[in-house]
Records
---
Amino acid sequence: MMKKGILSLIIVSFFLAGCAGRVPILLKESTIQNGNYESIAKNLKKNEKDNLLWYLDAGIISENAKDYPLSNYFFDKAEVKIKQYNKKVLAGNILANVGGILTNDTFMDYKPKIYEGIMANTYKGINFLRENNIGNARVEFNRALERQRRAKSFFKVEINQEKRKIHAQAEKTATEKKINLSKIQKLSNNQKTKDAIGKIYSNLFAFKPYPDFINPFTSYISGLFFMSVHNYAKAEDLFKETYGMIKGNETAAPYVKSDLKYAIKLASSTRNNSKIHYLWIIFANGQGPSKKELRFDIPLFLITNKVYYAGIALPTLKENLFAYSYLYITDGNDTMDTKQVASMDKIIKTEFKKRFPIIMARAIARTVTQSTIQYELRERNGAMGGLLGAIYQDIMNRADIRQWKLLPKNFQIAKIKLTSPTVSIYTPGHVKLIELNVDQNANHIVFIRIPERNAKVVYDEVSF
C-alpha cells in the first residue's frame, strides 16, 4: 500500500515538473526573423495571462508592433505585480510562504528582479515620448530613476528576509524529519562542492560591474528626455552620472561627454535659438542572456550513504549574439558608428551574481530535505522505496530558469550633426537598413530594434 502511494507521488511529480514555472512562449524564432509583431500583438489581450514575465514580454512585442498604448497597458500590469511583491518585502510578509523545499523554485511565484522594474518604467517613458505625452513620460522616467536610487536598500531588505526564510524552513524540516541542522552547514561548507561550482561560475562572474543596480541606459535616455523638454540642469546631472559610470568602460563615453557639454551650453544660453541640430540613434541590439540549468552531484556521505542520489541544480547565464556589432549612420557629409552605452548582459549578470548566494543556499536546503525523505522511504519500504525516492528527488532537482526573454543584449547610441535632409543607416557590411528624410531645423531621436542578424528592422522617430 505504501509503495503504491510512493508510486503515485512519483507520477504526480512527473506531471507537476512538466508544468511548473512554465511561461507561455510569445515569440517563435520565425516571428523574430519575419518581424510579424503586429499579428501577435492584436491577439495579446484576448490571450492575456496573469503572469509577470508574460506581461513584460507582451510589452516589448507591442512596442515592436508600434502599438504604444497596448505596450504600456502590459507594462502597467507588470508594474502592479512588481509593486505587490515589493510591498510584501517591505512589510516583512515574505516569510509567509516557505515552500519550494519539497519541490523546487519553479513551483513558487516568480520574484521580480530589480532591473526588470527599472526597464519597465524606462520603456513606458519611451513609449509616452513617442506619443508626445510629455507629462506621463516625465513621470515614468522619474520612476525609473527613483527605482535605481532605492534599489540598493530594497535589495538588502529582500536578501535578509530570504536568509531568514531559508533558516526557518531548515528549522521546520529538522523538527519534522528529525535531522541535524549541522548537515546543512556541513554540505554548504564542503570545499569540493564549492570549488566545482566556483570554477564553473568564475568566468560568468569575471566582469567589471556598473554601480549597484544602476542602468546607464536608463540614466542616459532620461537625460536625453529632460534635455528635449529644456530641463537642462537635470539633463546635465544625468549625463554626468552616465559618463561617470561608463568612462573607460564603454565605447559610447565620448558621445555622452558631447551630450553633457551640449546640455551645459544650452543651460547657459538665455534662449535656445541654436541653428545646429542633431540626430541621435538609440539601437536596442540583439537579445539578452538566456538562463540555463547546471546540475552537480553531491558526495553522498555528506548526507547519508543510504541514499541513491543527491544533487543540486543551479541556474547559469548564457550570452546570446549581437544582431550587429554596430551600425553606422551617414548624411553624406559625415559618418558615425553606434557605440555601446549599456550592456544588458552585464546588468543582468550583476544582479544574478548578487542573488547567487541565496540561490545556492536554497538549493542546499532543498537537497538536504529531499535526501532525508529519500532516506526515510528506504528505511520504511526497503530498496524500492529508496529508489522511488531517488527518482522523485531527481525529477524535482530543477533550477529556476524563468526570465524576461525579450530584452536586448545591449543598447548602443550615436549622434550626428544634421547637415543634410537625408540620413541613412547601414550594417557593418554596408547593407542599407533605413533611409530617413529629416527636418534640419529640429533635433531627432531614432529608436531602432534588431533582435538578431537579418531580422526585420523596427524603428521610429521623435523630434524636438
---
Amino acid sequence: MYSVLLKKITFFVVLMLVMGLVFSGYSTVRAEEAVGVKVAEKEGVGQFLTDGSNMTLYTFANDESGVSNCSGECLDKWPPFYVDPAAVVEGCDVGDFSTITREDGSEQTTYKGMPLYYFFNDNNPGDTNGHGVKGVWFVATP
C-alpha cells in the first residue's frame, strides 16, 4: 500500500512540474519583447500613437503638462492609459514618455507631458472615433 501511495505522489509531483514548465512560457512576456506604444497611420488622421495592441491613444486639450483634468464621469468615456515604463516604444523617443500619479493614486502614462487616454467607443484596433470629440479630444501625435 505504501508503494502505491508513493507512486501516486511521485506521479502528481512530476505532473505538476511538467505543467509548470509548459505553461510558464505562456504566462510571462519579457519586458524587452512587450511593445507598449507604437505609431500608426490612417488616411484623414495621419500618424498617431497606439498601445501595443494598436488601440488608439488620445490627449485632452484641457489637460496641463503633467496634470490630468479628466475625472469623474469623464473617465467613463476616456479611461487613462498606463504602460510599464520598461515597455518598448516603437517609432518614438522613449524619453518623451513619463508617468504621472492621478488624484486617485493610479498611474497614467504621458507623452511629452500630456496624459494619454483611450476612448470607450473605439472597439477595434486602429479606430479613431474619439478624434475631434467636442473639439478637445485628439489622437496623440508623434
---
Amino acid sequence: AAAAADLLGDAETVFVDEGFTPQLVAEALPRDRPLTVVTASLAVATALADAEKIAVLLLGGRVRGSTMATVDHWTTRMLAEFVIDLAYVGANGISREYGLTTPDPAVSEVKAQAMRSARRRVFAGIHTKFGAVSFCRFAEVGDFESIVTDAGLPSAEAQRYSLLGPQVIRV
C-alpha cells in the first residue's frame, strides 16, 4: 500500500476505490499536504475524515451492505463531474486477456467511471487477484500507469503484464 501511495506525485485530487487494499492505500497517503480524496467507500472516508489537510468527498448513492460503499447512478453521475488526478482502483480479478473485473454490475460502473474521470490510474491488489476473472469488465490492463502488488506474483508473470503497458511494482 505504501508503494502505491508513493506514486501520488503532485496529484491534488485522488479517487480511492472500495475494498481492503485501496483502504490500505488511503491510510498510507501523506497527511502533511493538501489533498482531496474522492471515494464511494464509507471505510475510506472514515479512515481519512480526521486528517486535517485531507478533504474527503464521499460519493452519494445506494450503500451496498456487503462492501459499505455507494453505487448506482447517483454515484456515477457525481463522479462524472470531476477531473481526478489519480485513481487508486481495486478489482476482484485482473487478467491479461479479460482485463479488470468485478462480479457486481453496479460496482463495475463506479469503477469504470473512476477510470474515465482520472488522468492517471493505479491498480493495487494482492497477487491472488492475478489470473482471476469475474463477471463485469471495467478496464483493460493497458489503461493503467502502474500495477502495485506483492512479491507473491512471480517476476515472469509481472513482466507479461508490463508488456501490456503499465509499470508493475512488486513489494
---
Amino acid sequence: MAAATESVGFIREIECGGSVLRLHQDLVGDVGCVVWDAALVLGRFLENETFFKSGYWSCGKRVIELGSGTGAVGLMAALLGADATITDLPKCLPLMEKNIEANKDILTAANKALKIKAKVLIWGQDVSVFKPCPDVILMADLIYYKESLDDLVTTVTDLSEDDTVILMSYEIRTTGDKEQTYKLFFDKMESHFNSYTVEFDDLDETCRSEDIKIVFFKLKK
C-alpha cells in the first residue's frame, strides 16, 4: 500500500491537512498500540472532497473515534477541524493523551484551539457521558474478536441517532476465523444500520489497498 508516512523508531509520522502528526507507538503492546494501515486509509479518506466538501470538518462536527489506540484517526479529524473525542480502554488512555500532547502545537495552530480530548469508553457500557450523540463515529480495524462484537454493536447503536454517520475501515484478513468474524459483525450491524462500501477508486490514491475497505453506516429509519 502506498502511503505518505514513515516510521522513526517508535514515532509514526503522518501527513494530514498540510501538517505532519507525530504519533508515539508501543510496539510491544496489544493490538491498539500501533498505527495500523486501515487507520491511515480512513484518516486520509477524511480529506476526500467528493464525500466531505470544503469546511465539512471545521463547522462544528462532533466526532468520536472508538478503539482509538494511538488516536491516529481522531487526531487527523481534529487536525482537519473536527471537535474530536478519542476513546479506548483504560490501559490506552496514557498513550492517547501522550499523542495529543505531542501534537498540541499543530492542532492548536490549525484550529485556534485544542479541539480534541481522550476518554475511556468500554464497549457495551453506559455511554450517557458522550451524549448528545456525535455527528460522526470513526472506527478503524476493530473487528478482531467475536467475543467483543455484541458490545461493539451495542455501543455504536447507543451513540447513534438518525443523522449520525459511521465511518469504518477494516483490513481483510483470511487467517483463522476472521472471515466468519467479519460476516457475524456485518450481520449484527445490518439489524440496525444501512451500509455502503466506498469504491476503491474513491480512496486516496496515495494511501489505499485492495485489502482495506471503508464502509459508511447510518441508522435504519
